[in-house]
């Protein structure tokens, strides 16, 4: 991972400089600089518009009692897109503009989800309901492990009978 980050930190500026030289030779110095400034202005406007839309979707999803995983991912993509569009360069601007396109973000989200599930033990139930046929066990837990690394002791409370009375953390 460290090598990949180092390669990006060296490679991206070199690619940007090469593209700047090519663009400057094709359209001139001032139009090249104008395009860079224009993409920063357009990126800021797009970030504001789409950012508010994502915030509204997060609020609606939370109001529906669901976890806003897709909306948080979209917000992260918009944050990266805004940073890339404010960075001078044509390649970073292209990637930043691509992150503003919702279908591209959906494809990227699907790929990232599959990658996370393939690499790790990730399971998400975004409906707030357990999987079909699952059992829900309501209970309380207490950490009884010892800092010395010994085996934790297990204590069991007797099963409750009758109706449960509401407590300070129950309705």
Describe this entry's structure for a reader.
The longest helix is centred in the N-terminal third of the chain and has 35 residues, at 29-63. It is elongated, with a radius of gyration of 25 Å. 11% of the residues are buried. It has a domain at 10-119. The model has no long low-confidence stretch (mean pLDDT 80). The chain has helices spanning 2-27, 29-63, 69-86, 90-99, 102-119. With 171 residues, the protein is an all-alpha fold. α3 packs antiparallel against α4 (90-99) and α3 (69-86) crosses α5 (102-119).
What does the main sheet amount to? none
Write down the secondary-structure element order. HHHHH
Q: How many strand segments?
A: 0
Radius of gyration: 25 Å
Show unreliable segments: none
Q: How many alpha or pi helices?
A: 5
The percent range for strand residues is under 5%
The termini sit apart by 47 Å
Helix content: 55-70%
Briefly note the structural class of the backbone: mainly alpha
Average pLDDT number: 80
Estimate the global geometry from the Cα principal axes: elongated
